[in-house]
Amino acid sequence: MSISVKTLWDEGADKLQLSIIAGEQYLDRKLPETTMNRPGLALTGFFQYFANQRLQIFGLAEFTYLKSLPQEEKLKRMVDLFEQQIPGVVITRNRKPTKEMLELAERYKVPVFRTPLVTMHFINECTVILEKLTAPQERVQGTCMELMGIGLLLRGDPGIGKSETALSLIERGYSLVSDDVTEVRRTSQGKLLCWANEVTRYHMEIRGLGIIHVPSLFGVAAIRRQTELDLVINLTQPTGNEDRTGVNPETVEFMGIQVPSITLPVRSGRDMANIVEVAALNQKLKELGHDAAKELDDKIISRLTRGRVRHG
Amino acid sequence: MAEKFIEKELKVLNEYGIHARPAALLVKAAGKYSCDIYLEKDGNKVSCKSIMGLMTIEGFPGSIMKVTTCGQDAQEAMDEIEELFISKFGED
After folding, report:
1. Cβ–Cβ below 8 Å for B53 and A181
2. In whole angstroms, how far apart are CA A299 and each of A258, A287, A289, A293, B81?
């Protein structure tokens, strides 16, 4: 996904302590590759391989090198660089831009920023922000909870009891991430991060009660800002077709990532919170490499075949 | 009976937009029907049967919502939802 320089400016100006010093009217320029480049090599005149689609960072090294050049050579190299249609320039350590830099920025319609941050810190921070801005994101219907480090998404038709189950889990000491509407983002590590919409964050709707504010009632331990998704639980009307062994685990896909999923039939009087809690614990156990259903099945197969077939 | 799919663009006409009370009215109306009902705006799609969903969709006064109903009673559901939008959710 490509973004404009303006998006980075809007979202990251505070954190990156950016100020704009030239080319403000050209903020709409696209940033085709959402990463950074230090143009040191380009400044030496080497353009055979130059990442011109990236944000160009001028740090101490670039400035020191430029300073070592005679005036007309310096200008020529800078012109060569700006001619590559770079999307933007960031000067770190609050260095003063050279006069020609500002002129070239106007002539080639390139925004130039400045930050007091050290180059390394700027690049680290900016990488994180750019990744957030470009990561695929979806809004999904479902209530998100965290139980003992396991991120859970409770899904199901309206009225099936997602919020009620979540409420019982909160009473058991677990934490709410979001009720009914969950934002999900795919990180570069292939994980799914869940959090709540800003407006309704930490509020829940309970049938018959209306809207409640969870931390006011249960304390701040009952909420969590975000969690990594480990398990999806679908609450359904009983069909009689449910999984009885757990030997063939289901998965569900979000943005190309498969997440283990369980379908739980809801019957009146069934303690859903208890079952969901056990499901989360069981998932934790599986992640530690211990799959109870599979181990029992292997044991049975080994007995039935008098030891001819042994797994694990 | 055949599944029906209806799509309509409805404008939020009341002074405060889709706040808690209109959201509750919409959810109540939608809950009566078995069909799927969704509201969509700026690429955000939420179920009309979810209070939390409706409160996150940012239904500013004057904004246009794409409403879709899909199922056997899609027509009846759309009629009732449309009536709520037109009547400004009983406000003003």
Report:
1. yes
2. 28, 20, 16, 10, 57
**pLDDT tens-digit map of A161-185:** 899 999 999 999 999 999 999 999 9
- Identify whether the C-beta of residue A57 lies closer than 8 Å to the C-beta of residue A90: yes
Q: ipTM score of the complex?
A: 0.79
Cβ of B45 under 8 Å from any chain A Cβ? yes
Report residue A163 as tokens: 């919020």
> In terms of pTM, does the model score above 0.80?
no
| Spatial separation of the C-alpha atoms in residues A183 and A144, rounded to whole Å | 10
CA neighbor of A165 nearest in space, from A236, A261, A225, A99: A236
DSSP helix/strand/coil, A311: coil
Pair of tokens at residue A186 = 């795919």
Q: Is B87 on the interface with A (CB under 8 A)?
A: no
Q: Divide the 312 residues of chain A into consecutive groups of 10 and give the mean pLDDT of each group.
A: 88 93 92 93 92 94 93 92 94 92 94 95 94 90 94 92 93 95 92 93 91 95 95 91 81 94 89 93 91 89 85 63
Q: How far apart are CA A19 and CA A13, in angstroms?
A: 7
Q: Which residues of A touch B (CB under 8 A)?
A: 139, 141, 158-159, 179-181, 197, 199-200, 203-205, 211
Chain A positions touching B40 (Cβ under 8 A) are none
Strand A89-91 and strand A112-114: pairing?
parallel
Q: Assess whether B19 carries a catalytic annotation.
A: yes
Question: What residues of B are in contact with residue A214 (Cβ under 8 Å)?
Answer: none
Cβ contact B55–A139 (<8 Å)? no
Which is catalytic among the residues B16, B17, B19, B88?
B19
Q: Are A276 and A231 in contact (CB under 8 A)?
A: no
Secondary structure (DSSP) of B6-64: EEEEEE--STT-S-HHHHHHHHHHHHT-SSEEEEEETTEEEETT-HHHHHHS---TT-E
A158, A179, A204: residue with CB nearest B47: A158
